[in-house]
Amino acid sequence: MTHPDDRVSPPAVGAEQAPAVRACLFSVSGARLAVDVRSAREVALFDEMTPVPRAPRYLVGVANLRGTVVPIVDVAPLLGRSALRAPRSVRTLVLRDGPLLAAVAVEAVLGLEPFEAVLPPDTPDAPGDRVPHRFVTGWVSWVGETLPLLDVGRLLAELRTGSAGNARNAA
After folding, report:
1. In the list 18, 156, 161, 170, which could disulfide-bond 100, CB 3.0-4.6 Å?
2. What pLDDT does 88 receive?
3. Could you give the CA distance from residue 72 to residue 23 in angstroms, rounded to a whole number?
4. Are strands 31-36 and 21-28 parallel, antiparallel or unpaired?
5. How confident is the model at residue 123 (pLDDT cuts 50, 70, 90)?
6. Computed from CA positions of residues 82, 88, 91, 93, in that sequence, does the dihedral angle turn out positive or negative?
7. Percentage of the chain modeled with pLDDT above 70
8. What's the confidence (pLDDT) of residue 73?
């Protein structure tokens, strides 16, 4: 039995539909990638960072971001790309998923874009040779290119558990 409150009203004529996702677009080791804007906190440039002795290779260092010590990570090997060369300063995209927070080293942040459609992760024509599918929640089309929409939670969780240390072998 259906209650009157259970009925979904059709959209009003002329009403705009919200985009399926708003994404932050960025590049890492030549690959263009996207994350849901709800996971992207800010872009930060760190001129100084502290190396961490005996840390996994993906941990570039740690830095102070307005009183919070954040790990600066190189996710390129985890995503099947070339590792970052040890920089003096690093541009990052600060990502958060629940309690997990990390500053991901990026080449560039390309912008924020709304996408009306997100293709499912198992889309047959998606370019799966760039990013391991375990990190892809879908695909978005931008300037004639299909970009992976990354699963920030899974990416940060894998970095936290240390399984990213074997990324060069797993990717």
Report:
1. 156
2. 73
3. 21
4. antiparallel
5. confident
6. positive
7. 80
8. 95
